[in-house]
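If I may wish for something, please sit down with the protein I am sending here and say whether tokens and residues agree:
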Amino acid sequence: MHKEYPVTGSEINSPCKSLSILISFARGDLPLKLIFLYGLPATGKFTIGEELARSTGYKLFHNHLAVDPLLSVFEFGSPPFVELRETFWLAVFERAALAHIPGLIFTFVPEHTVRPQFITNLVELAARTHIEILTVEVTCPIPELKQRLNNPSRHRFQKLNSIELFDALHSTGALSSFPMPNPDLTLDTSQLSPREAAIEIAALCKPLHDLEDSEL
């Protein structure tokens, strides 16, 4: 899904380049770059997304911005929950593209309540609304992942934090219930800090700001 786009941090800081890029955004000549981070719970997707948003200027649209409000009304996995969650995801992607937002970072778990056609619908949306998708698989060895599940930072949102529930879901394949497209990049967060992971992703997505100049 990845395609290089000729915009660099040094170019965006040039007055002439900045003007030409702003005009391109206004005309819709540049695609929305969607950084699609996916993997099991507690692999570090959200933390990487925060670092990446800080370094690139892209917007972070993480999974629980859709999930948590819906959980206040609907049961997780119920038909209205599943339908509204997917509708919200796709609507945000579409409106971001139409608004000429340069970049969006999305976090995702391909778990059993997500309809497999969500990926097909996303690809079709991307084709008709000028969205360029960069898929990043975020991995972590299961023993370390389990140590992270009850990290206090995960309690900010309604995230899975029970080792027993994780084991039950993971053993049945419910947390990876359908095949994902081949990733443009795979990162093992047991080997990389969030900052290092963000740098690797940003090297592929041509960030709006130089990472070397960012305050990570």
